[in-house]
């Protein structure tokens, strides 16, 4: 089963579904509403990351419950969408970027399922390369880039963006971590479509507003959904190293 975790621009994914079943999935970390969709004769589980009405801010998202809920309904591959600001002029607003690495500056988030045991997962390739190849075939995307995750909910300062650039960051957002590593701990393939909504603070000449972000995401909604639909068409349920992430990781 394919899992989709999305925010603005993805809520309309149900429009091409032949059937929609909403269910409450109970996990050890909380209950999650998951929509089970039939799309192109495939099962797709969809979770709106910010809940109904975009009501949960980034620093309050129950990442562990979301990932565990997808695992519990049988998901093996996850595609997430993340709105981001760009620190790289070669990744302009309107681009879809598939990241291949991250820097985690988020704080006070529950970042592992293994609080009371010793487990060290490998993140040499934190984003699934198989899903990257499928996304590459599915639409106009930029391959590669380092995603910087901040705590939010405020936007970043120009000095912070300058620091992130010096460390090798290309994109900045508030929702990508710990989602990607939690998926690895649950041995699911995971990759992200980073939707570039604006240039980051200090690069953009204008003050940043959430309206600007939503307006750009709305303008890209058709292309984003087409990319996701093509991914669903092209996805294959095959074995992957992500499905064996705990081999050799547990002490």
UniProtKB/TrEMBL annotation:
Keywords: Glycosyltransferase, Purine salvage, Transferase. The keyword Transferase applies. Signal peptide: none annotated. InterPro entries: MTAP, Nucleoside_phosphorylase_d, Nucleoside_phosphorylase_sf. One of its GO terms (biological process) is L-methionine salvage from methylthioadenosine. GO terms for cellular component: cytosol. It is an enzyme of class 2 (transferase). Pathway: Purine metabolism; purine nucleoside salvage. It catalyses: S-methyl-5'-thioinosine + phosphate = 5-(methylsulfanyl)-alpha-D-ribose 1-phosphate + hypoxanthine. CDD domains: MTAP_SsMTAPII_like_MTIP. Pfam families: PNP_UDP_1. Phosphate binds at residues 8, 49-50, 175. Substrate binds at residues 174, 198-200. GO terms for molecular function: S-methyl-5-thioadenosine phosphorylase activity. Residues 2-232 form the Nucleoside phosphorylase domain. The record marks 156, 210 as: Important for substrate specificity. Its EC number is 2.4.2.44. Homotrimer. HAMAP family: MTAP. Although this enzyme belongs to the family of MTA phosphorylases based on sequence homology, it has been shown that conserved amino acid substitutions in the substrate binding pocket convert the substrate specificity of this enzyme from 6-aminopurines to 6-oxopurines. Belongs to the PNP/MTAP phosphorylase family. MTAP subfamily. Catalyzes the reversible phosphorylation of S-methyl-5'-thioinosine (MTI) to hypoxanthine and 5-methylthioribose-1-phosphate. Involved in the breakdown of S-methyl-5'-thioadenosine (MTA), a major by-product of polyamine biosynthesis. Catabolism of (MTA) occurs via deamination to MTI and phosphorolysis to hypoxanthine. This is Probable S-methyl-5'-thioinosine phosphorylase.
């Amino acid at each position: 089963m394919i899992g989709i975790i999305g925010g603005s621009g993805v809520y309309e994914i149900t429009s091409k579904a032949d059937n929609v079943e909403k269910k409450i999935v109970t996990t050890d970390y909380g209950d999650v509403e998951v929509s089970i969709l039939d799309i192109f004769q495939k099962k797709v589980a969809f979770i709106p990351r910010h809940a109904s009405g975009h009501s949960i801010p980034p620093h309050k998202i129950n990442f562990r419950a979301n990932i565990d809920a997808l695992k519990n309904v049988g998901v093996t591959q996850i595609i997430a969408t993340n709105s981001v600001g760009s620190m790289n002029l070669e990744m302009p607003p309107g681009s879809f970027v598939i990241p291949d690495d991250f820097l985690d500056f988020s704080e006070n988030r529950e970042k592992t399922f293994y609080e009371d045991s010793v487990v060290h997962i490998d993140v040499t390739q934190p984003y699934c390369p198989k899903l990257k190849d499928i996304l590459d075939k599915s639409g106009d995307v930029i391959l590669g880039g380092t995603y910087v995750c901040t705590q939010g909910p405020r936007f970043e300062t120009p000095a912070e963006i300058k620091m992130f650039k010096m460390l090798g960051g290309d994109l900045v957002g508030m929702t990508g971590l710990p989602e990607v590593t939690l998926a690895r701990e649950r041995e699911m393939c995971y990759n992200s479509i980073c939707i570039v909504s604006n240039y980051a603070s200090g690069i953009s000449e204008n003050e940043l507003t959430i309206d600007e972000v939503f307006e750009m995401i709305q303008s890209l909604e058709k292309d984003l959904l087409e990319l996701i639909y093509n991914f669903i068409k092209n996805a294959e349920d095959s074995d992957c190293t992500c499905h064996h992430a705990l081999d050799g990781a547990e002490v």
